[in-house]
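Entry 14. Ran structure prediction on the chain below.
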Amino acid sequence: MVTQQYTYAYAAVSVSDGVLDTLILPQVNSECMQLFLDEVATRHPKDRIAMILDGAGWHKSSTLKIPKNMLLVSLPPYAPELNPVEHLWD
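Output, structure tokens:
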């Protein structure tokens, strides 16, 4: 029996200057999301970050600890085209 393995790309792009932050992680869950939020906040300690997110469950987990320099902004349902990072895959 062949089992499939997946790798997941977490990405955030700055709409003002195009800076791209990515992490390749083994799962999509709140633990990996926390790693990504912490990494982006650490890479940009002097910036105030507004991160746009879709409605994925791991994006809105009550266990997430939002970094002090970050604000999470949720998109309305069924509107992925409003998320700037989605256009990277076009």
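The beta strands are 8-13, 20-25, 49-53, 70-74. Will compare against last week's run tomorrow.
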